[in-house]
Design brief:
single chain, 181 residues, mainly alpha, elongated
Length: 181
Amino acid sequence: MSRLLALVSIAFALASGASPAQSQQPYAGLEARQIKALSEQQIADLKAGRGMGLALAAELNGYPGPMHVLEFSDPLGLTDAQRARMQQLFAAMKAEAVPLGEKLIAQEADLDRAFAGKTITPASLAALTDAIGSTQAALRAAHLKYHLSTVEVLTPAQIERYAELRGYAGRPHNQHKDHQR
């Protein structure tokens, strides 16, 4: 029976385009990364202050972010005051996120070096991962709070239009309890 299961698994893997060797080597090639836990794209995103999906809880629940609101400023019909406020929020978000991203990169590099140098201990592992977790939380909060601020600048109609422009139509996105527009 186990031989049959193995044959079925191999057939499934071949049908899906993956060889058994590939499915057993999902990290092959990643060992050459400068920081093993971060891709070059992730490093670039962190250095640039990009969201990397950290604000999806807000974005997908009707809380637009300043960057995307600015991208859609014309179809949203932003006023000059709204546009200026979005630019301020975006600049503030980047000013907060970039240093946190760089700190996270440095912390991940420290963790990587400790493993590479075989100097990692249970105590240093706990300290390094606690620091990384704290920075990740601060970075996520930084992105999310600017989504909260953005909602206070937009009208319910603009929030709804934003959802349509982003392809989120079909869900009520302008139902914010504290939003009085």
